[in-house]
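The authors assume throughout that readers already know how a fold can be written as discrete tokens. The format is easy to grasp once an entry is in front of the reader. For illustration, here is how one protein appears when written out as sequence plus structure tokens:
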Amino acid sequence: MSTLKRRTLIGGIPAVLAGGALAACGSETEEAATGEPADLDAALEKGGKLTYWTWTPSGEAQAKAFMAAYPKVEVEVVNAGTATDEYTALQNAVAAGSGAPDVAQIEYYALQQFALSDSLVDLKQYGFADLESKYTASTWSAVNLGGIFGLPQDSGPMVMFYNQAVFDQFGLAVPATWDEYVAAAQTLHAADPNRFLTNDAGDPGFAQPLIWQAGGRPYAVDGSDVTIDLQDEGTKRWADMWNQMLEPGLLAPIPTWSDDWWQALSNGTVASLIIGAWMPGILEGSVPDGAGDWRVAPVPSYDGTPITAENGGSAQSVLKQSANPALAAAFLRWLNSSEESVGVFLDAGGFPATTADLNSQAFLDEAPEYFGGQQINQVLLAASENVATGFQYLPFQVYANSVFPDTVGTAYTDQSDLNAGLEAWQEQLVTYGESQGFKVN
């Protein structure tokens, strides 16, 4: 079995599903379940058992609160792995025809791929389209893919977290532009070669939001027609800027989420993070030694305007394999739209996708001691209102991300030009897309 074909089973749309997937996306007639909004209340009254796959820290507490409110329903929460690990398990279950959960957490970038493989229930039949006004525009557009294939849980407008103590120690000003950010990285590393302004060991989930923010629109998807241009103006703008960090060795070569990364954040070796607005609770819980030192600011931009992109964020979806899709949909409706559930999510440090919670005065007035009393949610809300529009992900983005290390990743290993890596990535994506039945330009 070739490398490409082996990966179709674990990192992309399985080849046996691709033809049907293209036809099924956006279909009004092909649905595994049929129902009405009233069926959700009836399902809750009848009860039953559900399995929910999530890595969200609040998942267990939310399920417990739900079962207290609806004692006839039993929800088993399973952490099947974070992101790609879970998607591998989901793809395997889809290919096998069994083993999928009733409800699963799926990041926005991956949602289209599972919708295309005809794995998810279109929730329009249960009246979920009426919930649109509850959510931010960017998160709702991520689940509205010709049908409603999930409900948003959180959003991840990209911001900059920085260690104020390190900035003060080395006389660094908070950068508003990427030119200023590069200059600050040079100053810090020159003063102490063991310190870095940030880290990046080659992460597609990090590179693509930066491309988005730079004005790159490398993917265009129209049904089975896909255009890929990883050398468009915005993508090159990001690559040329980030080369100024990569090639001179100004980036800590530490993988994000690794043990070394947590240690670097704790001891000040890494002094800032460009990451999603969902990070505060994680930072507070995982880097306790940083209490009082961290702050948040808008992500630097190319001209100082407060423009950003979505960095992560997830929805929850109902799988077509569910034996009780109405009950699963009822649980999902409660999970991501009820005040009680969103409150549990907020208590765990989550950054919601619901506009009412984002704009509540209590949320905006929060001033965590961990962040030196800064009213960080005001900065995060502003970021959510300044997300650039028009970015699309590929309908085989999970696969695309899986081969990023073999292509663009070599530039990080060699400290060489990112543009060459992007060109290699594009070549591999075009070949893969065509093998899956897409017309790729």
In short: Residues 216 and 235 are 4 Å apart (CA to CA). The chain is about 45% helix and 10% strand.
